[in-house]
Write a sequence for this structure.
């Protein structure tokens, strides 16, 4: 992001802190618009580093002045991070991260950490674990590992994490954050790619962080940060959420096709920090309602899906819609084919992209229903084994993706 | 007497022959124009077909959301249909030019009126095509969003939207063709007003209970959803 139209006060603030080592961006306003304890948290994290580190805190100034306890040891830059969208939405987080990266580059820092989660559960340890590998250990990307129960992070578990693993060969729990730590080198590479003529206006730098890191052989690691507070799922706007997540992911696939087509297999990345216990889930998932939504989609959206999915997958979906709830299971290879075929349809613009991404919602609900029924009584180890199986199915399906990506007009089974 | 009859017959024959002879140059011109237009039509049709095949036009038509076009195209190929339509347009234009060569006041007037009317026909075709595309786009948007909102009558809503847009497009096309005039406007107003009034009455009176039950169910569902343990991110 080019900070072309930086307001004078913010510009003065940035010039004042030139030469800092670390930028910490806090995106969420916290309670009553106050970043309560944000500065203290950053200060505590920085004091724990083995080497003296000059940090800068960047907070959202959208409301006309964030209330942050500021002193000489921790300069604060106030900047409009959230542009109209709620910072909770992926689009809002992506935009805000881009702005923080831009500020970090302008200041010339060695590392940048963005905290997008609700401040209620964030501690100084989060900042320490996300920043330290980039500052002290030559890592370029520090992705978060959350302690989560089996119903949390379902888009990550079902799509993003296994897709990124199959594409770029990196096993990462949360490939697009939202809390993230990156080195100055990676930040520079991301922003330069974003500003390049070929990719201008394409995927967000956060969505393309793994592909950029994989392309230039940047070092990637994960940091255990514990549980995080999340708002309840907004089912009425789920299709918007899915579109906001899948669109940058598919755009990035298009942009980096030359990179992921060469990758085979996958490796785990180093992880730092102690694993914390997952929070208790608040209750069972109502799979019946999810199956109803899936069946409604099958009843009404077959014309749309028929343009995107191969006949064999459509047949499997139709069969699935007729099954009783007790035996409702979506096979991994069917789900993988659905995700890959939607990515292909997005690439070749089989139908309007917005329609395509929104029509994905009932299929995703079908997957959740199947997963919820299968994992209702499962423990953490069984859940991990189940997701490992899914990730392997993504890897096994990659030759199909490759062949259809290269020759989309060839016979579609 | 016989001589007078003979003379009259001879004069009539001469008149007929001279009339026929006067038509001959026009007929030759018409045939020539037709011949040239057929040759041009074949060339233009051939070039168009090759170009459209080159860009996979048949497949693109399917992707743009006109699968029904292939069904009633010759050989189920929209490319062939487009080439045929263009070829026949060229032949028709050649025929019209040939007819004007007769230099008869009536045919000339007809041709002039035809060419004056042609832009209206083209505009009506464009309006219909654009209307069809918008109708399909809007119907698909409504269908997907309604399904995502768990509305059981999603398809009905989408069909309703498609027909509303198509009725509007057909009305605009007929207006361009100057067919029906005020009757079309009146019918359109009555039809649209009728639909809106019917919906208002259905919701306000007939389906009051149904709508309130549906809204209550939705409100209850939203309240239930907040307690669900699922987190997508």
């Amino acid at each position: 992001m080019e900070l072309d139209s930086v307001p004078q006060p913010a510009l003065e603030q940035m010039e004042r802190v030139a030469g800092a080592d670390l930028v910490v961006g806090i995106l969420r306003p916290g309670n009553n618009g106050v970043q309560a304890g944000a500065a203290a948290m950053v200060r505590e994290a920085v004091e724990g580093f083995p080497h003296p580190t000059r940090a800068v805190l960047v907070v959202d100034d959208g409301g006309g002045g964030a209330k942050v306890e500021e002193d000489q040891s921790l300069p604060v830059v106030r900047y409009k991070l959230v542009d109209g969208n709620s910072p909770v939405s992926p689009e809002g987080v992506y935009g805000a991260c881009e702005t923080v990266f831009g500020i970090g580059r302008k200041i010339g820092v060695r590392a940048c950490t963005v905290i997008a989660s609700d401040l209620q559960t964030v501690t100084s340890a989060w900042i320490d674990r996300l920043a330290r590998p980039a500052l002290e250990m030559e890592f370029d990307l520090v992705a978060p590992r959350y302690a989560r129960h089996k119903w949390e992070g379902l888009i990550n578990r079902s799509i993003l994490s296994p897709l990124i693993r199959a594409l770029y060969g990196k096993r990462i729990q949360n490939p697009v954050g939202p809390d993230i730590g990156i080195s100055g080198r990676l930040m520079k590479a991301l922003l330069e790619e974003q500003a390049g003529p070929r990719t201008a206006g394409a995927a967000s730098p956060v969505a393309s962080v793994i592909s950029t890191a994989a392309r230039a052989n940047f070092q990637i690691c994960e940091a255990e940060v514990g549980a995080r507070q999340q708002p309840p799922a907004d089912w009425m706007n789920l299709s918007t959420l899915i579109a906001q997540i899948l669109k940058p992911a598919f755009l990035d696939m298009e942009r980096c096709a030359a990179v992921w087509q060469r990758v085979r297999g996958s490796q785990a990345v180093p992880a730092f920090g102690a694993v914390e216990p997952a929070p208790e889930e608040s209750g069972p998932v109502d799979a019946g309602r999810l199956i109803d939504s899936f069946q409604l989609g099958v009843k009404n959206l077959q014309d749309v899906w028929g343009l995107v999915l191969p006949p064999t997958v459509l047949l499997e979906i139709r069969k699935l819609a007729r099954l009783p709830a007790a035996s409702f299971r979506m096979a991994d290879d069917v789900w993988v084919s659905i995700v890959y075929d939607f990515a292909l349809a997005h690439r070749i613009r089989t139908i309007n992209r917005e329609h395509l991404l929104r029509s994905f919602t009932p299929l995703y609900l079908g997957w959740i229903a199947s997963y919820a029924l299968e994992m209702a009584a499962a423990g953490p180890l069984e859940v991990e084994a189940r997701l490992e199986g899914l990730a392997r199915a993504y890897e096994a399906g990659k030759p199909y993706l490759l062949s259809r990506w290269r020759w989309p007009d060839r016979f579609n089974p | 007497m016989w001589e007078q009859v003979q003379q009259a017959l001879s004069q009539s024959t001469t008149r007929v022959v001279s009339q026929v002879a006067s038509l001959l140059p026009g007929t030759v011109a018409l045939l020539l124009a037709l011949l040239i237009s057929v040759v041009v039509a074949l060339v233009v049709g051939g070039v168009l077909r090759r170009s459209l095949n080159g860009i996979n036009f048949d497949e693109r038509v399917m992707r743009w959301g006109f699968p029904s076009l292939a069904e009633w195209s010759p050989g189920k190929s929209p490319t062939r249909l487009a080439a045929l339509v263009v070829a026949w347009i060229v032949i028709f234009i050649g025929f019209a030019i040939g007819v004007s060569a007769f230099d008869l006041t009536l045919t000339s007037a007809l041709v002039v009126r035809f060419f004056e009317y042609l832009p209206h026909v083209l505009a009506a075709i464009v309006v219909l095509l654009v209307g069809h595309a918008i109708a399909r786009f809007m119907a698909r948007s409504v269908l997907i969003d309604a399904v995502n909102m768990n509305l059981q009558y999603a398809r009905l809503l989408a069909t309703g939207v498609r027909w509303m847009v198509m009725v509007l497009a057909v009305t605009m096309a007929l207006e361009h063709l100057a067919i029906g005039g005020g009757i079309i406007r009146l019918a359109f107003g009555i039809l649209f007003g009728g639909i809106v009034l019917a919906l208002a009455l259905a919701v306000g009176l007939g389906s009051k209970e149904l709508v309130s039950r549906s809204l209550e169910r939705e409100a209850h569902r939203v309240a239930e959803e907040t307690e669900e343990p699922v987190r997508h991110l």
About this structure: The interface with chain A takes residues 56, 59, 62-63, 65, 137, 140-141, 143-150, 152, 154-155, 221-222, 224-233 of chain B (CB under 8 Å). Chain B is about 85% helix and 0% strand. Residues 88 and 145 of chain B are 42 Å apart (CA to CA).
